[in-house]
Give the backbone structure.
Amino acid sequence: MKLPGHITGHTRVFALIGHPVRHSLSPQMHTRLFEQLGIDAVYVAFDVNPMDADKVADAIRILGLSGVNLTVPFKEKILPHLDRMTVAAEEAGAVNVVINVDGILTGYNTDGEGFLSATRDEHNFEAKNKHCVLLGAGGASRAIAASLASAGADKITMLNRTASRAEQAVTALRAVNPKTQLSAAALTPEAFASSSEGADLVVNCLGGGAEKLVRELPIKQLASRAIWSDINYWMNSPPQIEACLKQGHPVSVGLGMLIHQGALSFELFTGHPVLPEDLQHIVDALDSASDPKETNLG
């Protein structure tokens, strides 16, 4: 059994790899769980230069990391360097979990399932027959779109600053989800206004660099039932959240997705199932221990 704070040469190392990653709660969440369950392991964060994306898989093998979570910009860039991928990861065109077994790297994606589980818990949302709009076409957006389509969403529109990237993602998703109406367009106020009219769900998957653009999107045409979800849990004030609340819309700020996908990742890492509530308790404790002036769930 591993004692708290007792690290040896046998301690397994798990990590988050991305850029930036210093804001992440994942190291504290996973390491606390390892300690609580007596698992001889630690979880750390590596902020890696995006120019070194082609070296990430080799680094996992060389350093003997047991498993990693991936965030931007590596969810898609690591794909050519993996040995295996799950069907869910192939459909999403991105992975956020890599497991290393004797140098064989297998890619998984828990983003989509984590998002759906969190949105179901928070808003009793079921994707079947729903109209959804996604902002962004990166790894998280593609995973969420794939899960929404698999769960029976009727219509999904993906809007991205570079329209061609959204079109490529939609083309790949159509091949495995022929019953869902999938479309793509450039992310402009006009395109958002037309595509989001009557939508049941809007998901902002864009990072902080697009905050100004997202704030400028019109929301008056949104149906009263429309949920606005922002997956950037680390932001103090995600764009449009306050405006949507004032307009009476249910909102989500991404922490639920982090917790649900984190529980799925932990089980992949260790084979030990945990409940999202277990991680929620850890996050609540971390938040309570923070200086109120410095509290930031990022």
